[in-house]
């Protein structure tokens, strides 16, 4: 058995053990949003934009897990709908934020590559 | 390629403009002969007109240049300038799938081979070279033919993306004279063996902040010099470095002078001139100051000297200046963020009062200016503004009086943590404003100790990635900070300066051995966005001079160890 | 200096064209065409006047819609695309009212309403050409909906999308083209 296969097995074993040891932290990545018109039928159109801001602010930045490296995201649920208060002091209502849920795993990396951020930047 | 298809391609491009050109040239000849009565233009004047044509697309007679692109799209030179594709240095660029060749005289008047000499094995340069065709050297005559007719000296038709410009003979000569001056002679501070930089340190900055700024830059330079030494000792073992950097950059040593500025800011100019005279540099890297960066900014504009990512809360806010590239707009950007956030709900604020309380410190004024200029640009009336002198605290009774008088829906408090008790006391006021906005950065460590009762109505501008997210980027700077201790402010400076190292190293590698100052800024302007510690996204572009453009609006979560909670996008629109 | 030799070349080239070559468009199409079906997200974007617009409503209209992706400080690709839009408006004259041109920013951090407004003025845009920006999240959603996601603006490619009023599909044009090509594609799509 060569080293690569052993390495893959080690990573798989680590992911499996860390997954079972504790429930992994979750992140929510918003894919769609809408103002719930029924929550305030008379609300002005501006609420659509406010729900955009409200839902986007709830969304984790997917890229910020991939870009630095060291994290692995595995989709746990698709199309989850969260209904949240608009939470604005000047208008009432609720927003529906739809998105996907990901489990976050801390990845294994070779220590030598971890702290070579500068070198990685140089590609 | 068959002769027939060559003829078809060449003729199709040339013929369309051909008749137009004949008319233009006739007009040009008339202008030239008519110009005989005017005094001859000096060479400097010609270059100025040439520069104007190149950069602004405006003819010496004040009218826009005219051109055709894509075969049949007439365009005005003022919306289709030479500089927009060939860039300020004239050294060209790659954007998406389109490669723009250099257009400076030094390169044009040499034949172009298949590959750039000495860079045959450097992948980035190789790719660029292979995307450009071989051709003999241009002459003034063939260059004029190319600019007007779109045919190179090998008889090849240029891409239809290159406009075919209608220029008379005299104007064409001025443009060509200007092209000959572009990126022609190496600037001060660069030789074949060394690239010399300086960093400006002004009086009064905490020593630990100066060290935080210097650490990434000096580490980068020392690593680079380590590579140069290794290359000198065993060139054959450095093949990968040669491929990444090119044979010249890999061997080049770098050095950094520290230019300390002492005394009052109005004496800095003379000190800078003196330093520069004795110690010419290619560019300024980083630098740090407590006050406005304006004196250094102006000096750099006047000497055409790039100044990359100085650590300053008070950059010059300008859409026209070229030589200083800031990492953000500093304190101004927080005020701007607040205005953008309130703009998203301006419909709900119509007819309501916005009250702005400004402590007239440099920081308070910069926050208020950022807010006001952005708010006004949206077309909204200025808020009610109350200024407090630098030594006049915002006490609870004072704030009470102001609120009773103005009854604002939104209260902006551009002050530091000293204003927190007054803001917290509003929790008990029935008619308190719906939102109170402050600058999180101005609160310093007190940010985490905002009383619980105020957390529901206090909104904060936060111009960085949230700490709970930024922790994922710690591995980038571990190698710099391991075993050292930094407070929050110094750690931010390390991250800002680290971004400079990343930017600088990448830019130099992409310069294809052309170490010209304008090309350094051109190259940075064409770089992809960067994801680094501290800011959500650093982005660049020709003429963009503030790399981080966002600012969150946040609230403080509950509990003893509260997290910041996003209430907005990074780029609020 | 424009020489006698060059004049001769021009004349010869013109004569050769008359005898052997077709119209300019026939010199070679540098773009690819495909017919695609896309689902648009219901996101809120902002136009050059600072007005919030719901993107899906903008697209679901009785006008022909032409979409491209640009940014305010772009060098090579966008000026060509935008000159194409400007020229299209001029060529269509009064008919240009039936067409809605939509440029979407791929640099939303920089492209504020003010920047976009200046940009359109520079190209002498007429009413009927909007430039839209938005939050990074929303812009990413629109780019992905058009199968035109560029993680960074510097990796973008020239694209035009045409949708005829009654059509549920888009014509996707990949590459830079002249106004003649764009108009003939619009005709082909039943959009003119």
Largest sheet of chain A: 3 strands, antiparallel
Query: What oligomerization state is this entry in?
Result: heterotrimer
> What is the ordering of alpha helices and beta strands of chain A?
HEHHEEHH
User: What name is given to the CATH topology of the largest domain in chain B?
Assistant: Rossmann fold
Explain what you see:
The complex is a heterotrimer of chains A (123), B (573) and C (192). Chain A is built from five helices and three strands; from the N terminus they run αβααββαα. Chain A has a three-stranded antiparallel sheet with strand order 1-3-2. The longest helix of chain A is centred in the first third of the chain and has 19 residues. The N terminus and C terminus of chain A are likely disordered. Chain A is α+β, with helices and mostly antiparallel strands. Chain B has 573 residues and is an alpha/beta fold. Chain B contains 22 helices and 17 strands. A seven-stranded mixed sheet of chain B has the order 12-11-13-14-15-16-17. The longest helix of chain B has 32 residues. Chain C has a six-stranded mixed sheet. In chain C, strands 2-3 form a two-stranded antiparallel sheet. Chain C is built from six helices and eight strands; from the N terminus they run αβββαβαβαβαββα. Chain C is globular, with a radius of gyration of 18 Å. The N terminus of chain C is likely disordered. Chain C is α/β, with parallel strands linked by helices and 192 residues long. The N and C termini of chain C lie far apart (44 Å). Chains in contact: A-B, A-C, B-C. At the A-C interface, strand 1 and helix 2 of A face helix 5 of C.
